[in-house]
Amino acid sequence: MKNLLTSVLFFALTFQAIAQTDGITYQAVIIGPDALELPGVDSEGNYLPNATVAIRFTIYDSGNQIEFREVQIADTDEFGRINLLIGEANHDEFTHISWDGTPKDLEVEIDFDAGSNFETMSREKLTFLPYAYHRNITATGTLSVDDNTFLNGELQVEGPTNLNSTLDVNNQNATNLTGTLTVDGETNLNNAFSVNNSSPSSLTGNLGVGGNSLLNGTLDVIGKTTLNDLEVNGQASFADLQAESLVVNQNTELYGTTLLDGMGSQIRLTSNMPNSGAEIGNHPVLIEGGKNGLAIRVNGSRNNNTNFITFYDTTRDLSWGRIEGETPSEYTNNADYNFDQTSLNYDIYDAGFDVAFAAYDLAASFVEVTTASTSSTACVGLGTCVTAPIPSWIVSSTAQSIAAGIQLVAAGVGVGIAATNKSTYNTNKDTYQGVTYASGSGDYAEYLLRENTAEKMTYGDIVGVKGGKISKNTIQAERVMVVSFKPIVLGNMPQENREQDYEKVAFMGQVPVKVFGKVNVGDYILPSGKNDGIGIAVSPQRITTEQIKDIVGVAWAENKQPFGFGFVNVAVGLNRNDTGQVVQKLENKIQEQANEIADLKSQMLTVLDRLSKLENGESVTASYKNEDSEEHPIHRDYEIVESTEKDIVYFQITVDDFEKGLVLAEQMIRDSGEYDRYKEYLDKLKNDPVFKEKFFHKMQQDLNHKIHYHKQIDKVGR
Predict the structure, then answer these.
(1) Exposed (0-12), middle (13-18) or buried (19+): which is 146, by Cβ within 10 Å?
(2) What are 294-341's pLDDT values in tens digits?
(3) DSSP 656
(4) pLDDT tens across 678-718, in order?
(5) In angstroms, rounded to a whole number, what is the distance separating the alpha carbons of residues 338 and 344?
């Protein structure tokens, strides 16, 4: 049978200072549960030596509620003794026991198998004595301590704490206040003052800082702040900042409306950036955000003396270019405006001359028609005989009148268009007046890759373009261009560190070109053919079809040295119509040959038809008719005018004459090389019945006036 007898139970409610461990010392001798078997008789109540047992300690409060419990595994010594410290296994829970003077019981349980099958050994009341160390102390009265008081643990004060003297926290120990700290007197901080955990600090009075102030976070100042000297190394937010002198050595971020007033002095933004690449990060000033960029407003109005933007570099004090204002009264100060006005006026004058010459040609053609439509062979009376005018002559003369009429219409429209162009130009100039860009540069250029990156090129060299790459070899080049000298606009920027593989090539404008030999203004500049970057001049009268594709531009300056090298100013990208005359001549030649081939084909078909009839035994008669024969019938209205010299017959111009004349007029215009110029009016005359009828009646009306004039002359004699 089991005998749970503790021979020695000694415990004291003391707190061990040894090893800095709080607890209750517990000592006991464990009696074995089984009797000792001896010969003849069993011996009971023997101690349990060298055994492992489990001891469970439970402390109950005055309400018989468990306040603390832990289990410890212990080994008995050779005499069955154990020596334990209650609270060692579950120290954190032990420290929360409230020793408030109320009764507490200690229950001890044992499991001889060191498992969880515990049996009660004892339950005893804990007796309180004045100990050297205490846990929680509850005092209902006043606690007076005449000497120093050392608290090695936490001091928790539930109510107010009044300190009539100094509070010193030594050894650099922290002082944590979770509530409000109210200080009625002065507060002296001899060391750092830190407000952690993003907690705010509110100061209703003045804040005087005698030394440096370090703000690692954001400083928000809602009201006005007067700073005689402020140094900010980190981020600072200002709702309203007025500073007479502000020096910022690090990054500055300004949010909201920002006003920089120089008060009559210059405002400078200086950034000595070391890199010169075209990347966005290599520019000293970046304006970012929004749909628009930089707006500039000057005081007063704008004129040529107002420079909105001026361009300088460190090589000289004078500017290299500017964007200046412009008013209508200052248009004539602009060379481009003067040139445009001259060109537009020339167009009007040229169109006016076209009208004058066209009117003259039309009047002359009416005389020709009048002559062609009359006959001086007339027999009046019975057996009247009339010699009709030659129809082909009438058709030809009518065609001349139609062509002259078309020229007059086109010239009149040209005057209107030229005048409208000038009016539109002047209207747009007034509408979009404002600023003009001024620069010493004269062309628009782009970077193009060299075909051979080792090939040396300088400005003025003539280069050939093949697949977007350039070289001095112009043979079979897709385009012939010039290396730019100083472009006003430069596009197609290459990648960083590859600019040496590219060259600036002029696309449009004025650019100096290397030439050999004499050059006159208006000459075409072509490659020399030696692939040396040099050009030669060819006059417009001597240009050939083969040379058209190699035209670089038109010389706007001359070179008087017949056997020397030099530079001439050349207009490139502006000569798109220079080859029109040559092309038109080629088209006319082709059309002429096509007409000849058609005539030959018609004659051959006639000959073959007659040969076929002869082979078949058929008779062939000539189809030629003498248009001067008196037997030729007359199918047109006529009027006989009795003249003092001889009778004259005036025949009326018919619609059929007009239709045939229109066909011949078109051919005449084609042969003159001016078909493209009058094509629109020819098409309208052929395809628009209303326009054709008005045109014919107008011609007939003018012709009738001319014939009436001739009739009056014929009646009185010439």
Answers:
(1) exposed
(2) 888 888 777 777 777 888 888 888 877 777 777 777 767 665 566 566
(3) H
(4) 677 677 777 888 877 777 777 767 666 555 545 454 455 54
(5) 10
Token output for 143: 């606690």
Which residue has tokens 């140094």? 231
Classify 86 as helix, strand or coil. strand
Of the candidates 560, 554, 590, 592, the residue with the CA atom closest to the CA atom of residue 574: 554
Type of residue at 475: I
Burial 629-667 (b: 16+ CB within 10 A, else e): eeeeeeeeebeebebeeebbbbbebeeebbbbbbebbbb
Helix axes 689-716 and 655-671, enclosed angle (nearest 10): 100
Nearest to 6 by CA among 121, 162, 131, 146: 121
Helices (H) and strands (E) in the chain, counts: 7, 27
d(CA 333, CA 337): 8
DSSP state of 223: S
d(CA 467, CA 486): 25
pLDDT at 380: 35
Cα-based distances in Å from 355 to 201, 361, 685: 92, 10, 19
Collapse the DSSP code of 452 into the 3-class scheme (helix H, G, I; strand E, B; otherwise coil) and give the result. coil
**Are 440 and 369 in contact, with CB atoms under 8 Å apart?**
no
Residue in the block written with tokens 């499991």: 111
Four-residue CA torsion sign, 436, 442, 445, 447? negative
Q: What are phi and psi of 464, to 5 degrees?
A: -100, 145
How many of the other CB atoms lie within 10 Å of CB of 443?
A: 25
> Position 208: which residue type?
G
Tokens matching residue 317: 């004090």
CB 58 within 8 A of CB 107: yes
What is the C-alpha to C-alpha distance for residues 637 and 653, in angstroms, rounded to an integer?
9
The DSSP-derived string for 125-176 is EPPP---SS-S----SS----SS----SS----SS----SS-----TT----
Q: With the C-alpha atoms ordered 168, 173, 176, 180, is the resulting torsion angle positive or negative?
A: positive
71 beta partners: 56
Secondary structure (H, E, C), 162-229: CCCCCCCCCCCCCCCCCCCCCCCCCCCCCCCCCCCCCCCCCCCCCCCCCCCCCCCCCCEECCCCCCCC
Nearest to 460 by CA among 508, 500, 515: 515
Copy the structure tokens of residue 288.
């970012």
The Cα 568–Cα 517 span in angstroms is 11
CB atoms within 10 A of CB 15: 16
Give, to the nearest 10 degrees, the angle between helix 675-687 and helix 689-716. 100
Joined together, the tokens standing for residue 581 give: 């005359």
Structure tokens at 417: 């268009």
Cβ contacts of 639 within 8 Å, gap of 6 or more: 649, 650, 652, 711
Residue 654 to residue 634: CA distance in whole angstroms: 13
- Amino acid of residue 500: Q
More confident residue, 623 or 477: 477
DSSP helix/strand/coil, 487: coil
User: What is the DSSP code (8-state) at residue 274?
Assistant: S
Statement: residue 664 has pLDDT above 90: no
pLDDT tens readout for residues 86-112? 999 998 888 888 877 788 999 999 998
Tokens of 606: 């006639």
What does the block give as tokens for 699? 């011609």
**Nearest Cα to Cα of residue 419 among 363, 355, 361:** 355
Enumerate domains of the chain plus CATH numbers: 6-125 (2.60.40), 352-425+590-603+633-718 (no CATH), 442-575 (2.40.300.10)
Ramachandran quadrant class, 463 (left: phi over 0; alpha: psi -120 to 50; beta: rest) = beta
Check: CB of residue 570 under 8 Å from CB of residue 555. yes
